[in-house]
């Protein structure tokens, strides 16, 4: 089909993840189609990321799942219940947005307890459950503070506590980390993974950040033009993209043009390679093709090494743990390799090298634009 301080795992024992079924979901705005025939099953307790470029339809799918947008076609089932046209408050969902939307006139505890107040829960129980939710997100003791006294990451944790305080079975997150700096974003990624593991809640998470999706999700759905291009576990998506769009969109990928004759792919440089059967995510008819492989799967070898791809170094970019080598093949095609910085020798521009691509790193797609 086309991932410490002690804290309670739940604010009570009743929270369990919902099972979600989306069938033929579509959304149009007049003559503009935003989502077309999206279908997927999300298991109880699963973490699914919706990944895609701007305008791919990922947020529209999430908003329909939340009930803030009504589909123009298809259906949404949550634990077998048809929720396609139910309002958000009747779907038993939690929602975390990109902007935290905390009430500045309320302290942290009252912000977290607000959904309980709207549900008519008494003051003492609201306080108990709000404090328990703050413990879950590692903000125990912060209840009396004002939101403006918190860092961005702490405010996001408050928003998470508010979303889980009434123990929804489904948590929807719309690019909640995009406003944070890199280090804080990475810290929050791990925090949300921990929270998911402890609560057993089902999470659907929208992001345009590929690394974020791969780091956090059990499965990733890649969308383009309102359609799912691939839905698979993170490792499968990265190591075996289903089509050329997924290959070019997720992570760095070398795409080398050539001709496939059914047994051998001959590159424009004149070099020929024999890809193994597993190099073909989809059948490729003889003709124009693209040989694809990740830069980190290439190994440096001395110029003239048999079976390796000859290239000339254009630029070397030191990036800490690894070094990016940008080179040109004899026909001018750019090829990139990422090698560990530790122990690697200095390579100057203009140096002739060879790049070894192991067979299990090769992928072949029909030629053409992604």
Walkthrough of the structure:
The protein is α+β, with helices and mostly antiparallel strands and 370 residues long. The protein folds into two domains: 20-239, P-loop containing nucleotide triphosphate hydrolases (Rossmann fold, 3-Layer(aba) Sandwich), CATH 3.40.50; 252-366, OB fold (Dihydrolipoamide Acetyltransferase, E2P) (Beta Barrel). Helix content is 23%, strand content 32%. The chain has eight helices and 20 strands. A hairpin with a 2-residue loop joins strand 4 and strand 5. The protein starts with 19 loop residues before the first strand and ends with a strand. Mean pLDDT is 89; it is low at 1-15.
Blueprint (SSEs and pairs):
Blueprint: E1 20-29, E2 32-42, E3 47-51, H1 58-66, E4 73-78, E5 81-82, E6 93-96, H2 108-118, H3 123-136, H4 152-164, E7 170-174, H5 182-199, E8 202-207, H6 210-216, E9 219-224, E10 227-233, H7 234-239, H8 244-249, E11 254-260, E12 265-267, E13 272-273, E14 287-293, E15 299-302, E16 309-319, E17 322-328, E18 334-340, E19 352-356, E20 363-366
Parallel strand pairs: 3-8, 3-9, 6-7, 7-8
Antiparallel strand pairs: 1-2, 1-4, 4-5, 9-10, 11-12, 11-14, 12-13, 14-20, 15-19, 16-17, 16-19, 17-18
């Amino acid at each position: 089909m086309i991932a410490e301080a002690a804290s309670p795992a739940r604010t009570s024992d009743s929270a369990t993840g919902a099972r979600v079924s989306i069938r033929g979901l579509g959304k149009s705005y007049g003559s503009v189609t935003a989502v077309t025939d999206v279908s997927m099953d999300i298991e109880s307790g699963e973490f699914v990321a919706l990944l895609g470029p701007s305008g791919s339809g990922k947020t529209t799918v999430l908003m329909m799942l939340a009930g803030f947008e009504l589909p123009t076609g298809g259906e949404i089932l949550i634990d077998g219940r048809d929720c396609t046209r139910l309002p958000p408050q009747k779907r038993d969902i939690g929602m975390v947005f990109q902007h935290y939307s905390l009430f500045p006139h309320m302290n942290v505890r009252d912000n977290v307890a607000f959904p309980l107040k709207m549900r008519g829960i008494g003051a003492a129980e609201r306080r108990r459950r709000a404090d328990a939710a703050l413990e879950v997100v590692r903000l125990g003791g912060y209840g009396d503070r004002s939101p403006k006294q918190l860092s961005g990451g702490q405010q996001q944790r408050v928003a998470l506590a508010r979303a889980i305080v009434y123990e929804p079975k489904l948590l929807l997150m719309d690019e909640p980390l995009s406003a944070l700096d890199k280090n804080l974003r990475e810290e929050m990624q791990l925090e949300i993974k921990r929270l998911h593991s402890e609560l057993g809640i089902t999470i659907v998470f929208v992001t345009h950040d590929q690394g974020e999706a791969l780091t956090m999700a059990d499965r990733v759905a890649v969308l383009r033009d309102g359609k799912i291009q691939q839905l698979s576990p993170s490792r499968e998506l990265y190591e075996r993209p289903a089509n050329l769009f997924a290959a070019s969109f997720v992570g760095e990928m070398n795409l080398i043009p050539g001709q496939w004759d059914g047994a051998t792919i001959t590159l424009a440089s004149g070099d020929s390679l024999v890809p193994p059967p597993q190099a073909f995510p989809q059948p490729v008819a003889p003709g124009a093709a693209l040989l694809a492989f990740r830069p980190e799967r290439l190994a440096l070898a001395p110029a003239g090494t048999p079976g390796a791809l000859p290239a000339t170094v254009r630029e070397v970019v030191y990036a800490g743990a690894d070094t990016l080598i940008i080179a040109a093949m004899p026909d001018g095609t750019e090829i990139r390799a990422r090698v560990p910085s530790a122990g690697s020798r200095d390579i100057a521009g203009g140096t002739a090298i060879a790049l070894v691509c192991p067979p299990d790193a090769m992928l072949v797609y029909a030629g053409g634009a992604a």
